[in-house]
Design goal:
Chain lengths: 521, 299
Amino acid sequence: MASQAVFFGLFVYLFIGAHYTGQDYIGSTVQRFFHFDPLLALVTIVSARLVYAWFAFALVTAVATILFGRIFCGWVCPLGAVNQLSSFLFKKAKFLRPPREDKASLAPKYYILVLVLVGALLGLDLAGYLDPLSFLTRSFALAVLPSLAQALSGLGGILYGLGAAGLARSVSQLLQNWTINTTFIQGFSVGLFFLAAVGLNARRERFWCRYLCPTGALLGLLSRWNLVKLRIDDEACIKCGLCTQHCETQAHPYPNDGWKSGECVYCLNCASRCPTAAIHFPLSARFEKAANVSNVDLSRRKLLLTTIAGLAAAPFFRLTPSRKRASVKLLRPPGSLPEDKFLAKCVKCGQCMRACPTGGLQPVLAEAGPEGIYTPRLVPKIGYCEYYCSLCTQVCPTGAIRKLTIEEKNRVKMGTAWLNKSRCIPHVLGKPCVVCEEHCPVSPKAIKLVEVQTRLPDGTIAAQKAPFIDHELCIGCGICENKCPVADEPAIFVTSVGETRSETNRLLLDISGGSAEDPYK
Amino acid sequence: MNRRDFIKGAAAAGLALRFGPRATAGPAAAPAPLPVLAAVEGQSPAAITRSAIELLGGMKAFVGRGDKVVIKPNIGWDRTPEMAACTNPEVVRTLVELVLDAGAKKAVVIDNSTNQAKRCYVRSGIQEAVKQAGGDMLFVDAYRVKKMPLRGEWIKEWDILLDVIEADKIINVPIAKVHSFCRLTLGLKNWLGATAGARNQFHQSLDKTVVDLAAFFKPRLTVLDAYRILVRNGPQGGRLSDTEMRNTVVAGTDPVAVDAFGASLFPVEPRELPYLEMARARGLGEYDLGKVRLEKRKI
């Protein structure tokens, strides 16, 4: 559908644009989509107990849904477009033969929604895992775009082999210009989830939208009063059932009073399939019966059970020591909120990881507890934090990473570098090195040089310049760790202690700032 | 132009052809009418670059018609020009213009930067300058890197950027900076940016590496940007106060002499730089500025 193509194109355009374009400040990118998402808005505001002004746009979607039904799902949502297109292709290829009438329960997405909302009440942000925008952005950022880049790069190699150097060069320059990182710790698993979501469309059309999507469920609940009603002209209808068979979301157009306004995404398949053109969508202010919203068995008992299950499950997410003691390797992007607020706000979309020009921002697996899966952390061994870059802070859709100017960002400390003297080349081998000092970006440098003497086995003493870290100047950017020639486990490494955002993960209690007199002196 | 000027010009051109500087000028070259080294001081980076090349006999003495020329600045760091961590973009722009005016088919500018490549290319101002001058800015391409025999004293073989080594003519355009380790980074050390691979291992014997690489790359010309030099917190600085103005461009066919002159601007005695001593011993050039034909000018 044209509208879907336009919005999907816009989504991809904004998504691709969220990187170092040559400008220090890149303006609006794909996070604008997120701001129109009522589920992300609701969950983020509830779980973080903070209102984020940009989410006012979500009201547009909410009002549009109240008035016109789930047009967001059928006309705007980019993951909906992916699902619809793949369903269409699966149908064309005869992998998918829709049954005459589908009796599968549509309830799971409502229970997922209840779980997500209950989690939000308890300060858990679970929306990001299954919210379509978050899911798609994460999949594109960590898997789809990187694998496309890998493939393109491979193609470039083949072109060089074939002697088409000019074309090959264009490919490689393009990839550099788009600053696509191709190495993500969980790129493979994120990609598998995406393939699974696409593949499920071979079971049922728009499988995700029908059964899983909590955002669709929320919009379904809102669409109860919508004005655009499906009407079958009884005189024209020949009761062939094609409309119901080819309904993408199991909204059951026929018989007319069985139509579920909360399931319909207004793809208009039914109207175009109808051999007698008997289906119309006139405006009507008539209220639907509650049962007709989705006709799912949302019994009070089951809803209560789900709520209780959510309440019971939430504590499991907290069975982690990461709230008690800071995690050593959890270097959050600059501008990140304190950990509890950060976890409550981060929707795991991976946009910051896409924007990071060095590829250092990576999805967390275990470092931040179960609710921190897919949240970002800096892994200096893979990529360091570029001193004059604040892109990750500019693309965050929820403010989990506060927007920072370059000057503000330069004052943020993400962690502190430490030296492992038993692996440091000057210290242990008595040979020159100090690559870390050369790369330290702050001025004056946080890595100083001191002369160390190493006693060698033959009794001689080697004197070398060796790094010494000034912990007040160090900002924890990790370039020292990244460039350290001790490749496997760098001799200099950054841990989270001393990070600006935490009051407890502090290194030195320097409240007086060194100016007050010592009362015990 | 009158007849007398024409004859003068023709004679100069003839002499330039006869005594034109060689790619690796040996020590104590036969007395030639053109200097081996030209240092020009002035307020405009472009003008002093132009003037320095003129003193050496003009770009046509180094670049032939249809040549593919590679210009190798220092674009190592994500720093803006006033931080003096990368070569001045105006110097690079001027060289691209001169090279193209001299009839070169292509002027390619490339460096294997230390910080993220695109950020360095953009924020150094060099990408924009080169584009405007009609040159080609090239990112390092992993497929265009090849392990090559250097046959150096320390580095026997290393990954080299093919886009640099396959050019008809190479022009080295370093910037003069202090370096925490080899004291100064000038022209000879700039070749680290034309290599790939685990460059962080070079530091285990940096002076030898510098000389081995300088012996491998054969620049037709070295143009040292000392317009604004880095005097503290090298090799990347970070504050304006880390830099000082010298308003100078040093150009020469003897890469060792260029570095020696660059060192004198800090001031550092050239003989205090071990790599210059080693380079002279290997016949790469002369660092005793009293022994090279040097021409200074102020504009």
